[in-house]
């Protein structure tokens, strides 16, 4: 049979590991929340970029040649 001190030490070690695991889980949850917020923001920005830029003229056709950088 094991020494009561050994059992108590093992229990203490398990409690310490459980505490570290809970802390790590909380940190990972916070990272996931931040990443989801960033994803939501990027989805909104992509949606805005997909909308045609008409320079205030509704129904104006876009010519992709007009959007080329000057070095082309």
UniProtKB/TrEMBL annotation:
Residues 63-72 have a biased composition (Basic and acidic residues). InterPro entries: SlyX. Residues 50-72 are annotated as: Disordered. It comes from the Bacteria. Gene3D superfamilies: 1.20.5.300. This is SlyX family protein. It comes from Rhodoferax sediminis.
């Amino acid at each position: 049979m094991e020494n009561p001190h050994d059992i108590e030490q093992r229990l203490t070690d398990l409690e310490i590991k459980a505490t570290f695991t809970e802390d790590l889980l909380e940190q990972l949850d916070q990272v996931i929340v931040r990443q989801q917020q960033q994803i939501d923001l990027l989805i909104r920005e992509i949606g805005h970029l997909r909308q045609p830029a008409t320079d205030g003229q509704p129904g104006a056709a876009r010519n992709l040649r007009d959007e080329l950088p000057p070095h082309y």
